Amino acid sequence: MKKIFKNIFIQKRFFLVLSGVILCFLLSYIFENIAYIPKLLFYLFLALLITDAILLFLSKGQITAHRIVTDKLSNGDENTIKIEVTNKYLFSAQITIIDELPFQFQKRDFNFNSLLKPGEQKLYSYAVRPVERGVYSFGNLNIFAISPIGLLAKKYTFDQDKEVPVYPSFLQLRKYDLMAFSNRLLEFGIKKIRRIGHTMEFEQIKDYIQGDDIRNINWKATAKRGQLMVNQFQDEKSQPIYSVIDKGRVMKMPFNSLSLLDYAINATLVISSIALKKNDKAGIFSFSNKIENRVVAERRSSQMNLILETLYNLKTNFVESDFSRLFIDVKRNLPQRSLLLLYTNFETLDALHRQLPYLQAIAKQHLLVVIFFENSELVSYAKCKPNNTLEVFEQAIAEKFIYEKQLVVNELKKYGIQTILTKPEDLTINTINKYLEIKAKGLL
Q1: What per-residue confidence (pLDDT) applies to 255?
Q2: Contacts of 181 (CB under 8 A, 6+ apart)
């Protein structure tokens, strides 16, 4: 009985009907000849209330429901959550679904309203976009059922306290894998880059067939065999590709609610997968005041899972990054020439100059690509038409910061360091294009 009362919720219609009954009682004191009407209405109201309670709590049937959510959510992407509800009552029930979302989403009034016929099953869905990695806790899935009478509601509770981890954007990874499989990469901004020169490893000498490049003819083998022979090449394989992530305070800046650090993490996941598919070795490590989260570049089958788990646990520590420590670690632990994709951010030329000697030293031993971010909000603001003197002044400052970013690019290029200046949302595509360009030109 205590459980029944706990799950009873009075509806607005209850108070409306009760107000009408009370009004009739008041009128009966004024007009004595209608004194029997309030009593009649009261008994009718009581009968409806009891009938409603019997339909909801004592009749055969109930509401069943469960939340359908994947084992993990993808950070920065729209993730679909589904709720399956079945009405096992013998009557049509009006239901209200209230799902208690994790506090990170900051939604407190999230609900669905629907009508379910007897025996009907419906599937409801909604999307959530997490912007932080970590564990998200879903609360209760609450279903309120209302009979056709509509005076009371019965509460059902399902799927209590479900925890779901939010990982780096594996949905983005699947998207690029699917595009590569369907040969649709050009539609999404991946450039088709022409291979320049002989930037491949020698594989074998074979018979010439129509269509082979005549520049690959092996004249010595041709003379011996008495027929045209050509050298066959294959892509250079097993080159170490490292994603180096700056997790200092400069990477905590948010764009579209997602931090620069998480944009870099999502891009690292994709570029690591592509490198492995290109038969290269993929590895990662992060740095700030020390080197952490190291995954040595390998081609083993478990490499992507290892990279994914490492990126999941990567957190910023809000300190200034030590590029001298990065240089020492690279010199000590990376003896083989590698491609280093360095995700960081420089807002001013002075900030670059403090770290430039270390970047130059790294670039002497490895192929270094410095990847940093365009402040897209400043760019948008600088393009707006000013309405007053203050806005003119603010736009001048914004344009100065935009110009400083370009100076950083020019300064790095002056010392032969590859660069990518990109909008955060275009980071993955631009990084893939740079990797494919480097492979095509044989720069590594």
Answers
A1: 86
A2: none
As a whole number of Å, the end-to-end CA separation of the chain is 75
Calpha distance 66→353 (Å, rounded): 57
276 Cβ contact list (under 8 Å, min separation 6): 282, 299, 303, 304
Asked if the model's pLDDT at residue 198 lies above 50, the reply is no
pTM given for the model: 0.78
Closest CA to 429 of 439, 418, 417, 437: 437
Task: Scan for tokens 């403090």, then name that residue.
Answer: 354
Residue 90 · residue 61 · CB < 8 Å: yes
**Tokens for 364?**
């002497």
Phi, psi of 23 (to 5 degrees): -60, -40
Q: Which residues contact 310 (CB under 8 A, 6 or more apart)?
A: 284, 293, 295
Question: Tens of pLDDT along 4-56?
Answer: 444 555 555 555 555 655 655 555 555 555 555 666 666 676 777 777 777 78
Half-sphere exposure of 372 (CA within 13 A, CB side): 23
User: Are 100 and 128 a contacting pair, CB within 8 Å?
Assistant: no
| CB 105, CB 120: distance < 8 Å | no
Cα separations (Å) of 247 from 37, 290, 316, 442?
A: 76, 10, 5, 30
Residue with token string 């294009």: 433
Q: Which residues contact 356 (CB under 8 A, 6 or more apart)?
A: 411, 415
Closest CA to 176 of 277, 253, 321, 43: 277
**Among candidates 331, 318, 329, which has minimal Cα distance to 288?**
318
C-beta neighbour count of 281 within 10 angstroms:
21
Q: In the predicted model, is pLDDT for residue 200 greater than 70?
A: no
DSSP H helices, 345-419, are 349-365, 376-383, 389-414
Q: What is the pLDDT of residues 306-363, one digit of tens each?
A: 999 999 999 888 888 999 999 999 999 999 999 999 999 998 889 899 999 999 999 9
Q: What percent of the chain has pLDDT over 90?
A: 36
DSSP 119-165: T-EEEEEEEE---S-EEEEE--EEEEEE-SS-SEEEEEEES-SEEEE
Q: Return d(Cα 275, Cα 283) in angstroms, integer.
A: 10
pLDDT tens digits, 114-124:
899 988 999 99
What is the rounded CA–CA span in Å between residue 115 and residue 145? 10
